[in-house]
Protein 1
Amino acid sequence: MIRIGRKRLWASFFCFTAFFFLLVTLQVVLELGKSERKIKVSSLQDGSLKLEEQQKHAYQFFNKQELYSNTRRVLDADRYPILLWWSPLTGETGRLGQCGQDVCFFTIKRTYQHNHMTKAFLFYGTDFNIDSLPLPRKRHHDWALFHEESPKNNYKLFHKPTITLFNHTATFSRHSHLPLTTQYLEGIEVIKSLRYMVPLQKKNSLRKGLAPLVYVQSDCDPPSDRDSYVRELMSYIQVDAYGECLHNRDLPQHLKNPASMDDGNFYRILAQYKFILAFENAVCEDYITEKLWRPLKLGVVPVYYGSPSITDWLPSNKSAILVTRFSHPRELAHYIKALDTNDQEYEAYLEWKVKGAISNQRLLAAIQERKWGVQDITQDNYIDVFECMVCNRVWENIRRQEKGLSPRRWNAQVNHLSCPKPEAFLFSSPNIRWTSLQEMWIPSFEQSKKEAQALRQLVERNMNFTAQEFWTLVFKEETR
């Protein structure tokens, strides 16, 4: 009986404890609900940011340090500089973000344009256009440009009159304030990895059914004129072309979707080849894409055409074949045929990978020192870092002014985003295959210079302008 009594006593005790825990949990949930309804970045009133309703502005990019991690600090603060995304890249209507010790309010809402706390306007290059710009531009209004893509997306940005309108830049150029040159390379270990590498003996055996070279492009006839070169090259050596451009070989059905370009099965197909034609869609200093990094990951020798200074970024002095070192595709074909039949010479291009020895200190330093990651949720991405760079600089000037010092001025330089005029290969003839370059890209580049000059004149006038005014000025430039 005593044991039964004790059991009942303990049972009652556990029931009471569980009931008490449920009550406390319910109370906490209710209080959190009330708190969330109170915490919200509201509209700016009288130049002050006030937090009122609910904390629901979630950033679409990973690993963003949010000010909400310290609610008390948020509630105690009521004024922050505003950074307005004029190009609605992030889609955020309002978010307080913390960048080290600095806090800024990020938004895409243009209603903040004339607020006295607005300090900078952020632009995404591909979406930058003349239809609407934040004018008049006040002396304390900085313009910041983020543009990681090919010049074919917006040529007028690549001319001095336009690029020098900006104060802060994040571009593929090593000279920009936030260089994105290695944006397509996840890390050093990725290119050192032997995961996909196929032994040379097996590659030689596979050569019975595969060409020595593979070409995978579906963006045909771009400004680099790469298809003209590969078409000529095909006259002297066999090339398997899986993409829409110069297509002569099919991928398995499940890999035909462009989304499969990073599929492991697609990688395994490419890894069987000895050489990959790695041609960029444009020829610009430091414009380097997955075209280069992919074959290096897979243990295939890239035959590269693109950035003129590509040797500054290769893992070793002998890790790629450079098209520009050959006067004609015929000579390149002859060299590749020689390597194809000489295992020792071929393997010399892969020695760095087999040994895991990257001798390029510039590449190693760039990866180690960059503050953002690629496909890595444990690191900030380059959008985060770009925002914080501008935020930190805005706050630097706020502190300087508090000390009675003149604000510091940052200015974009021509080498922050610069590409030469598209050119056809010397062996090309003006036939129907060359018309895209002759009739579209070269005229587009030439007109973009006039557009850049017209834009500069109108922005310096510091008044809103219409598209008609802009194009009238462009055509006026053409008639001079």
Protein 2
Amino acid sequence: MLAPAPALRAPSLVPRPRLVASTRLRAFHAAAHQRLREPIIPGYSYAPLLQRSAATSDPRLAVSLHAALLKRGLLASSHIFLCNHLLIACFKSRLHRHGLRLLDEMPRRNAVSWTTAITGLTQGGRPAEALALLRRMRRAGIPPNEFTLVSALHASSFVGGTGVGPARQLHALAVRLGFDSDVFFTNSFLAAMVRHGHLADAVQLFDNANARDIVSWNTLLAGFAHRSSLRLCTLWRRMAIEGVSADGFSFSTVLSGLAGSANMAATGLQVHAQLVKSGFVDDVCVGNSLLEMYMRNKQLESGTRAFTEMRHRDVVSWTELASGLLHCGEPAKSLRVVSDMILDGIWPNNYTIAAAASACAYLGSLNEGRKIHGYVIKLGGDSNVGVNNALIDMYAKCRSVTCAYKVFQSMQRRSVVSWTAMIMAFANGQAREAVKVFDDMLLEGIAPNHAAFYSVLYACSQGGFVEEGWIYFDAMADKFGVEPGEDHYACMVDLLTKAGRIEEAEELISRMPFHPGVLA
């Protein structure tokens, strides 16, 4: 007889000791195997990755590498080499706060660490913080090197309200440390003098310098290009006499400096001839400067030929030609250049659009103006203040004040030029609206300038608003510090004369600060 089958038992919820031990053992072996599979990256292997992060200015890569270095404890140890590379990556990626926090947390810092942070802040548009960090560096007892002082000098050039005081202090420090003969430092100090407008001091420093290179010459050329075309020409001749070979930046600076200059006729042609011999004639920046020089001096034929001979053209080249043609009184040709530019596959920028809008205003062509406005919307340039100002002026001169006002109302930001353009648009035919726009400008806290006052006084003259005219005229100097000019007096005299107030007009003429015959 068969024995009865054993009854089935419910599975136990309590793990067996052997099973627990076996599970833990397997987990241990799996973890150990995983650790064996994970490569142990030595600290020095991170340097190329950090260099790539700095080269690409990738903030995500910089943060990821920072996390990896922290996880492996490489930053808490004495890896100052890696810390400095990480600092460079942070500041190149514009992670300024991240970089400053890293600098504070570094167990050891050397001159490279501080210099990296100072350079990063300077290049990131935070010059005041860069100079403050230099003071911290000196208080920490770390002597600056020549690269530190060059970056600090560069920062001092962009700190407003301080003049050349900080630059002179840095120069004195460089002399004490023996860096005054370094050409890089000399160039930085020279640039600081030029940026602050101390050209006499810059020339003295240039003449007394122990060493000069092409950057030294270019820095002084750039200073003269904005202030004295005569001295610019003199320095250019001195370069040739001393046998200094000009580079592309030299040619570009001199040619731009001669734009609109009386010295252009003689020196400009000489520079052009030297340019052809130099081999820089194919440089697009140099070509654009050559084009600018001819067009701004209304040398239309030479400018057009220079444009035609350019092997490489960019949007600046086309824009310069379009603006130059407009400057020379050829608005139709200017618009044709913009059309050719688009057909050539070059999309216009904001300066091109502004020039095209001005050409439409000159021609009074509303249809062409609307096409230009369409390009603005398509390119997404309708948020640019300068472009919108040009559109307002264009619509006003094409007698479409309604369109001008729509552009004005759509603007998120308005400058005093925007308000002035809208006031002038309303002044002819809708004088009361012009006065209202001026009052709205004051309520917005925008201080009117010479042109804004002229526009509202012209509107008062057109509308016959004598009392408002006197209020605005008297407020110019008293409340806004704008001295009335000849055009303001002319508007007031016209306003009073139209209103039949001849005696008031004569009395105003008698107290004008200039000869009344100018207004006749």
Protein 3
Amino acid sequence: MRRTAPEGHGPVRYAPPAPEPGLPVLPALAAVLAASAERAHTEVPGGSAELRDAAAGYWERRGLPGERTHTAVAPGAAPLLLALTAVLGGDVMLPRPCPAWWTPAVRLTGHRTYSVPTPPECGGVPDPYALLETVRRVRAEGGRPRLLLLSAADDPTATVAPPEAVHETVEAALGEGLHIVSDETWRDTVHQPHDTVLISPAEMAPGQVTVVADLGGGFLPGDWPAAVARFPATSEGAGLHDRVLDVLTGLGAVVAAPVAAAAAYALAEPDEVTQRRTAAVRLHARVAAAAHRAVRGAGALARPPQAGRHLYADLGPLRAALSARGVSDAMELEEHLSRRLGIHAPGGHRFGDDLGSLRVRLSVAPLLGTTPEQQLQSLTALEPLELPHVERALSMFGSALDELRDAAQRMEPPR
């Protein structure tokens, strides 16, 4: 009998949204958007000169110099990836797990995807040896590997890939003639930026890497869709840029003018934007670390979160207790935890992990407060974990996991 997902969860092909910040919109951004909405003007495909200049400046401040002619803007990262996949053609290699929207965007173009395991220490980048093996197997079966997607700061695992892991994977991909698309949506949400080294593949191979960043990661609310792409500063990169613009134009993938104005303002990184981002990252890091302690305390597994506003947990050690509750796979785990925690907790199957694995992405946004006042209080508090609403939310979060731990311990045979 075919199992259906609860209303609002959707079948697996419908990707869950990226983790939300759980904070009110920055007033300065809202003011820029509102002011632009009062003017009658239309943005152009690929972004106006002002917006592309802002994007170029953003990349340059991160060690990736370029001109506006090397950039493009779209209403979200998915249209950019769809256009890149359509233009480059061929089969696409993905790390497993990977962002939930990658596979649907690729498959819309009719191209095949192949998942490659990640190394034990991080997500976001395929293990280089597994990548080589997969590419050669696909070729032997008549496929045409053409593109590798990776993300050094990762959704869903919330890890940051060590530079040596990125370097080895990039070297393997280029040796097999793959073009690399680096999704750097979460690069500005690294929890310990002074202690964590994040290297963009474009720093290692600037002529073979296209960089994409959805501004919903560190700059704009998720429902103000805007994303930027940086193309190689080569003749091949210029041709790729032009063909991607053709696809975006054909799709009508144009950023709404008010959102474009807010994006240009945010990418210029005035003090208000950088101060809010810094405070938000600090808050998300503190709460994510507390959630990680709760997960580990309950006997489940999770890598320490290093970026983003989420963590990726493996409840495999609690399988017996979950089985007694009718949970045997990631889809049932999603339903169970979403119901028990009162939040949407997408299972690992959404991110390309095996359905039988009991993995789940957990967002920290619901732990920050249920009203704008509580959320702002969390943002500005010196000790946010001591706020009553945060403490209460973390307690309920931990209790749901501790119930499973206690049940699992009761089911263990006596020694």
Protein 4
Amino acid sequence: MSKKNKKKRKGQSKNTTKKKETEEEMLKRIEKESRQYNFPSENDPEYSNKKIEGKVERKQKIKGKQGSIVLALLEQLEIGMELCRVKLPTFILEPRSFLERFTDFLVHTGPLNTLYLTDDPMDRMLKVLDWYFAGWHLTPAGVKKPYNPIYGETFRACFNHLKSGNGITRIITEQVSHLPPISAYYAENRKLQFYITGHIYPKSKFLGNSAASLLTDSSKMDLHLLSHDEHYFIQLPNYYGRGIVIGSMYVEVAGKPVIYCKETGIKVKIEFVAKGFFKGHLNEIKGEIYKDSKLIYTFSGYWDDKIHYFKNNKKKEDKKILFDIKKLKHNILYVPPIEEQDEFESRRLWKEVTKGLQNDDVDYASESKLALECKQRIDRNIRSQDNTVWETKYFDEDENGNWIYKYINKAKFQENEEIDPPFGKPGLPIWEENLRQRKKKNKIKKTRSSSKEKSSDQRDEKTRKTKKLRKNK
């Protein structure tokens, strides 16, 4: 037998007789990996878990100078017109890109953590609903609109569940179209055996005293559960900014979205109830759950408080809790440092506008926003003159108009799978390059510091020798 074959055999036998790590060793390894990936500490005030205290009043009054800006804005508007071409006043902006808004849906992944371990199809759908209702309460005070993403803009982030043994949830979003404005997104967690893909195309309209962002018919979300080969088709409700002309400004979620799983035949009809002018309550919700067209459960409540469900043939007294906002636990969002981001990544792209808004310097924020929009127009004109087509980075459009992530891993999770670094996923060369560059920099720093130490030691030795010689003389 040749030496090469012997070496191979030895390597194979080593793998098979690999010692299984203890729980203590696993926890140590996870802590080490958490530090290695520079995840923020849970005590860091910037990333600390926010307390949920039931219903929240989200109304905003317009101050003096801001009122005149709103009047200038109203001069541009006509009832029924689309808002994608209207310039909004800077004070009304939320200091983050619309691409980052998708992460709100994954701040609370609690119900998804055990989805792959749940055997009953109806229990799985109830957990999907629990997760879905958790994604709406993170709206800012008043009517705050995130930045309109620039064509080709991307945002990447992840949630760290290493300490709980649930791996890492990675997120990537991209602005794949300018007009109409379409944002595509993808999220995955290999350990929890799910991935989410979809796109958001908000059709914005002015309705008099309200501005609407219509999502139900134009946007879609798909949750794929690899462990059970299930696909959940999820619609989104509509957003309304109320009180733009008269009264206090607030956001209302309303509409009749549907969640459907083809493999199990379970369908959920949801109604986000719009508050009436004289009566009714904000954030009210009701709906029905069907199995093969047969009504099984009815549910009702408030998505910023509690939602109960009960069997169709039973009394309302036998209701069970479907969703409780007080039991939600926030995951910590990790975003790479700005200096490690690509020039078209959201936080780096909008950093000057964000700086102005955070410092209450509306003029500086407006100037920075204008400069960014001018650059975008110039780039668009150059592309049209050269007849160059913009190529999307992470998503491709299929024949049905759906935006599909290029690097989806549809294989079922294996227990011996290695935990990928949060930004070292195959198919994402920029993330890997950033990781390599960081390691290179650290190596260079170490070699420089070690060489400095050596040179300083040599100098000290030389001075000691010269002093000794002088003494002897």
